[in-house]
Q: What sequence folds into this?
């Protein structure tokens, strides 16, 4: 599915450029947890943004938005790190370590920080703000390239389901995929969200649903280690295509929202 970091990046960008109210950002975050709280990872970052430090009580996300406004934040991007690829997170350090564990992060390069979400209690998501040592190294994937890769991944995913014989063991597999896909694409986006970005995110949700069904098939009803490895090998490129597509879609959304504010759209 999409992730809390994608929601925060897109809605915060809309708010920063006048396309959404602060309450809209807070409402959008409710899709991920009833309560959101914010704390800085270290005292230096806390002081720079006037946020609570690691030994202080967290604050609500409204104060995070205010801090970002004061800091002159203008843009952000989504990071979906995986083992072996933590580009754009400033190299080895607390940010990349926590982002890798979470599988996601918000990167605010012009503010020099990154944020990582974590569920810390039932219905409570905590955003930890980290120093970003360096903003370089992020991969730029044009949305057209990502969309093409995702279309190819969808075809490969269909082939993988046949090859892995998932349907034979799960007769309602089509209904499962449809239900998961619908669940994964229910998020609300700002009014100025570019249709192409929405389309790519929806297609990413479809591929993710296929991946979940295939990966959860006990595992693939494999009878041997070699069969399990074959399943993993078949699904891995699809996961990568989804990851690239989501990052590209969010990047496109941020770009268009910024351009709209500047009167370029």
A:
């Amino acid at each position: 599915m999409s992730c809390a970091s994608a929601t925060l990046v897109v809605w915060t960008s809309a708010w920063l450029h006048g396309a959404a109210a602060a309450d809209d950002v807070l409402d959008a975050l409710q899709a991920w947890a009833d309560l959101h709280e914010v704390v800085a990872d270290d005292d230096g970052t806390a002081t720079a943004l006037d946020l609570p430090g690691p030994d202080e009580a967290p604050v609500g996300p409204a104060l995070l938005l205010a801090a970002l406004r004061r800091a002159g934040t203008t843009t952000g991007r989504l990071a979906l790190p995986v083992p072996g690829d933590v580009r754009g997170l400033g190299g080895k350090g607390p940010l990349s370590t926590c982002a890798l564990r979470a599988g996601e992060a918000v990167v605010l390069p012009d503010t020099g920080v990154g944020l990582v979400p974590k569920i810390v209690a039932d219905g409570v998501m905590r955003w930890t703000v980290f120093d970003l040592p360096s903003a370089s190294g992020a991969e730029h994937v044009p949305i057209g390239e990502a969309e093409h890769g995702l279309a190819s991944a969808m075809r490969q995913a269909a082939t993988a389901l046949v090859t892995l014989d998932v349907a034979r063991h799960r007769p309602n597999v089509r209904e499962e995929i449809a239900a998961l896909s619908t669940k994964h694409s229910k998020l609300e986006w700002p009014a100025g969200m570019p249709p192409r970005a929405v389309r790519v995110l929806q297609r990413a949700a479809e591929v993710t649903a296929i991946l979940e069904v295939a990966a959860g098939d006990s595992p693939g009803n494999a009878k041997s280690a070699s069969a399990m490895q074959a399943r993993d090998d078949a699904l891995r490129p699809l996961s990568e295509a989804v990851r690239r597509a989501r990052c590209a879609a969010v990047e496109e959304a941020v770009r268009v929202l910024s351009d709209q504010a500047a009167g370029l759209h």
The CA atoms of residues 76 and 210 lie 29 Å apart.
